[in-house]
Specification:
Blueprint (H helix, E strand, L loop, with lengths): L1 H26 L10 H16 L33 H6 L15 H13 L4
Helix pairs in contact: 2-4
Length: 124
């Protein structure tokens, strides 16, 4: 009987300890994620556009091969022309590229975001 009471006492103490730890963890300020600079936020939004619309054919990051043989990796676009000059083509519906590339038309803020991302993956 004494052994059973000791076990119950230990279990109750352990439970109270766990509850105390959880309560302390919950009472702390939540971890704040650092706010992105406007340029970094714009590049991140552009990356999300590229992931959603372009990544099935193009390598959109700093490395890797494009899955479509005629789709250039985004990091090589500046070898052909300044990527900033893509703004008009993106606004009017880009029709260059591989023959089976879908035609996309973007809003002005999306164009700026996508071009900011494209510039961020070009070799320095």
């Amino acid at each position: 009987m004494l052994r059973q009471k000791r076990c119950q006492s230990f279990a109750a103490s352990a439970a109270m300890f766990v509850i105390g730890v959880l309560a302390a963890a919950c009472s702390r300020d939540p971890v704040e994620t650092p706010e992105l600079s406007p340029a970094a936020a714009k590049a991140q939004a552009g990356q999300e556009i590229a992931e959603a619309l372009c990544a099935r054919c193009h390598a959109i990051g700093l490395e890797g091969d494009s899955t479509h043989p005629e789709a250039p990796p985004f990091r090589t676009l500046s070898e052909k022309y300044p990527v900033r000059l893509l703004d008009e083509a993106l606004a009017e519906g880009i029709t260059v590229g591989h023959p089976d590339m879908p035609e996309f038309e973007f809003e002005a803020d999306q164009i700026d975001e996508l071009i900011t991302y494209l510039e961020s993956v070009q070799p320095k």
